Amino acid sequence: MKFFVDTADVAAIAELNALGMVDGVTTNPSLILKSGRDILEVTKEICGIVSGPVSAEVVSLKADEMIAEGLKLAKIAPNITVKVPLTWDGLKACKVLSDAGHMVNVTLCFSPNQALLAAKAGATFISPFVGRLDDINLDGLELIADIRTIYDNYDFKTQILAASIRTVNHVAECARIGADVMTAPPEVIRKLASHPLTDAGLAQFMKDWEKTGQKIL
Ligand code: E4P
Q1: Distance (Å, rounded) from C-alpha 211 to C-alpha 105?
Q2: Whose CA is nearest to atom 9 of ligand 1?
Q3: What is the Cα–Cα distance from 137 to 181, expressed in whole angstroms?
Q4: Helices H / strands E in the chain, number of each
Q5: Which residues fall within 8 angstroms of residue 40, CB to CB, at 6 or more apart?
Q6: What is the pLDDT of residues 20-33, one digit of tens each?
Q7: How far apart are CA 19 and CA 134, in angstroms?
């Protein structure tokens, strides 16, 4: 499973990228707001750090304006993925931009039928939002599993990009189900390394090592 980092925080992206943990980046208008940066500037900076797909989201609601925005965003760098919402206009924009050879990420997907439409419109990625479904007591991971089954049934090439990932359990479950990509905030990716038994085991090893009185360096 590829790891995308869900942030416009350049320092966090650079840190994780240096560890080989970043296969791509996703941003959205809320994350641009949080960064306090200009969308074109910060997206260009991110594309200079990460060679994989970097999603930049359009903000118009009409297809023709989404297409114009998408074409402008795509000029930032060759690895830009234009992110469009899962509305009828977003699907129209997806079809036009995909046919023109651009990568497209269709976002705000909450149902298998929406995912089916995105695949038929030529999306490179579909972004089902796991955490936001869990927030309203629905099962976000079940949606990932349903889309996996549907795409495999018909050999759709659209990649499942599990989004709105909030917990380490979400990450493991998405990998088990077979999501192609997951995007998570930097803090969730860092937490993947943590386990209480690792901490306890290391503490014991350090205690015993001290008792040996030895040094390696
Ligand atoms: C996906 O591309 C979105 O940017 C993101 O995953 C949304 O996550 P949230 O529901 O935690 O805001």
Answers
A1: 56
A2: 164
A3: 24
A4: 11, 8
A5: 76
A6: 999 999 999 999 99
A7: 30
Q: Which residue has the CA at smallest separation from atom 1 of ligand 1?
A: 163
Domains annotated on the chain, with CATH: 2-211 (3.20.20.70)
CB 158 less than 6 A from any atom of ligand 1: no
What are the two backbone dihedrals, phi and then psi, of residue 206, each rounded to the nearest 5 degrees? Answer: -65, -40
For residue 72, what are its two tokens?
A: 């402008």
Region 6-15 average pLDDT: 98
Ligand 1 binding pocket includes 107 (Cβ within 6 Å): yes
* In contact, 125 and 107? CB cutoff 8 Å: no
Rounded to whole angstroms, the Cα distance separating 173 from 3 reads 14
Instruction: Report yes or no: 32 and 25 within 8 Å, Cβ to Cβ.
Output: no
- C-alpha pair distances (Å), 72 with each of 10, 28, 36, 45, 201: 21, 16, 21, 16, 52
Q: Which pair of structure tokens corresponds to residue 60?
A: 């118009």
Find the 125 Cα to ligand 1 centroid distance in Å: 14
With cut-offs at 50, 70 and 90, classify the pLDDT of residue 116. Answer: very high
d(CA 1, CA 72): 30
- Which ranges in 50-159 belong to alpha helices (H)? 63-74, 88-99, 112-120, 130-135, 140-154
pTM higher than 0.70, yes or no?
yes
Q: How many CA atoms lie within 13 A of 198 on its CB side?
A: 5
User: Which tokens is 205 given?
Assistant: 């090893």
